[in-house]
Amino acid sequence: MRVDDFDFNLPQELIAQRPLAVRDASRLLVVHRNTGQLEDRQFTDLVEYLHPSDVLVINDSRVLPARLWGRNKQRSGVIEVLLLRPRGEGQWEVLVRPGKKARVGAVIEFAPRLSCEVLEITDSGSRVVQFSFSGDFEAVLAELGETPLPPYIHEKLDDPERYQTIYAKHSGSVAAPTAGLHFTPQLLAAIDQMGVAVVPLTLHVGLGTFRPVQTERVEDHVMHEEFFELSAESAALINARRQAGGRVVAVGTTSVRVLETLAHDDGTVRAGAGWTDIFIYPGYQFRAVDALVTNFHLPKSSLLMLVSAFADRETIMRAYEHAIAQRYRFFSFGDGMLLL
Fold first, then answer.
1. Taking a C-beta distance cutoff of 8 angstroms, is the pair 132, 116 a contact?
2. Are residues 314 and 279 both part of a single domain?
């Protein structure tokens, strides 16, 4: 399967640069997988497609203020450090720009109470660093760090909380699980009042999620790892709803990756925590997910391949053509899609 089969031309003006004033005022393209029918709706219309017996699975990961600005103690100039994933014992894998100022042994100072030393340069060009800090690391990060935005967003946010879901709880992501950005307290309350169970899991989103696949063949791509956790309570509720005839409606491809990582052949899921590098592309047989709420994804991305596996490539590419023609807003702050 060729990666180029998942390419499309997107007018730059359709890349949403700012969130809408009201989260759930976005549009919703409903895709019926069995018939290929497309419906242009509003995101608040999601309730019309849910059943009281369903379970809505959300990712409660919170985006870290993962971008830091520092200086090399031995060289002049500013260095940008972006946290990617913890290695334990105060060590993190990070991206550094410019890389020439972050050779092994370099010490980068961010403030009197925070610095790091470069321990290793990985095969991909990232760095492994050892942080030195006083006090609580998350508190120091909250004080000194910035919330990173994807590179296709060129405007600074007035309110960084708009790049967090309203239910974000567990810090660890370097990018938002963007399908969840559409939900408001009022919409979630309406869904709950219907009888739909809203169940959390956690997947800390890494930057690799949003990068285009670089190989020529889809099958040659190697997925990055992301940390996940599904509690025993959440797993039991998901299984009970599905066994009673309800559907598992995943909010975001991140929720899908966790559920499918933990799925048994009969569609039930087990509780668990760890790292997943599951790569879902056309031909994959889904076991645990019946419907999907998602955003519009980048060309040639693993996320576009995942949704093309959930429906089929032809249906998804036709849906994207429709969305472009109808001037939907794309990517993180863009509109939503419901795959039924």
1. yes
2. yes
Residue 149 resides in a domain: no
Let me know if 95 is exposed, middle or buried by CB neighbors in 10 A (0-12, 13-18, 19+): buried
- What the block records as the tokens of 62 is 């919170």
**337 in Cβ contact with 294 (< 8 Å):** yes
List residues bridging with 130 in a β-sheet: 91, 117
Tokens for 278, please give them.
Answer: 């599951």
pLDDT tens-digit profile, the chain (340 residues): 999 999 999 999 999 999 999 999 999 999 999 999 999 999 999 999 999 999 999 999 999 999 999 998 887 789 999 999 899 899 999 999 998 889 999 999 999 999 999 999 998 889 999 999 999 999 999 999 999 999 899 988 999 999 999 999 999 999 999 999 999 999 999 999 999 999 999 999 987 776 779 899 999 999 988 999 999 999 999 999 999 999 999 999 999 999 999 999 999 999 999 999 999 999 999 999 999 999 999 999 999 999 999 999 999 999 999 999 999 999 999 999 999 9
Taking a C-beta distance cutoff of 8 angstroms, is the pair 310, 337 a contact? Answer: no
Cα separations in angstroms, 197 against 120, 238, 253, 256: 45, 8, 19, 17
The two beta strands, 38-42 and 27-31, are antiparallel
Query: Could you say which of 113, 144, 175 is where a domain stops?
Result: 144
Range(s) of the domain holding residue 258: 3-63+159-339
CA atoms of 258 and 255, how far apart (whole Å): 5
Three-state SS for 306?
helix
At which residue do the structure tokens 């509003």 appear? 42
Distance CA(40)–CA(114), nearest Å, equals: 49
